[in-house]
Amino acid sequence: MTASVRRAVAADAGELARLRHLSLTCPAVPWTKPRAVPDGPWVKECEEAIAALLRDQDTVAAFVVDAAPGHMAACAMGLLLPRLPGPSSGKPFNGDISTVATDPEFRGRGYARATVTALMDWMTVSGCKRISLASSPEGEPLYTSLGFTYDDPRMSWRAR
Question: Cα dist. 40→10, 26, 67, 128 in Å?
Fold first, then answer.
């Protein structure tokens, strides 16, 4: 079965926030009990942030597979981050895939692959040099098959 993928709009923010919440429950150890991620004000804030971001059609996109009207089976959402030109590329952006999620009842149908591929295509056409993401252990086989590698470890800092 071929997935019908479409680009999300701001009105889809509620479902995208629901799937983002779902993605955060992915267990740290593959195929074990999902992590408990509490509901709270952050879910509504996430929905509002996604709606605002999706109004910028130039640097943010989400691609989805619908299960039914108003209910998504899967999504992949990402941002284009400006970058300075360097000797190896003058492309203006790096991409960051921030959320990939499939509702449990729709897993194993290729929906994540379809949405991630659509997002990667959009990023590439938009002038993206590099695309990065953080993967759950369950997602690693998909991302590896799409050409992602651990070739450039980076350090990061988080405010407390």
Answer: 21, 18, 25, 34
